[in-house]
Design goal:
This protein has 36 residues and is mainly α. Helix content is 72%, strand content 0%. The chain has one helix at residues 5-30. It is rod-shaped, with a radius of gyration of 14 Å.
């Protein structure tokens, strides 16, 4: 499955956005991390 450059960029952005969201939810539930 070959992806064009814009598709690859969109996929990477979506992946990291989802990853950041999941990590944010986990941090919020555990109340750990650099954020109060």
């Amino acid at each position: 499955m070959a992806l064009s450059s814009p598709q690859r960029i969109a996929l990477i952005v979506a992946f990291f956005g989802l990853l950041a969201f999941v990590l944010g939810v986990i941090a919020e539930n555990k109340k750990v991390g650099p954020f109060p």
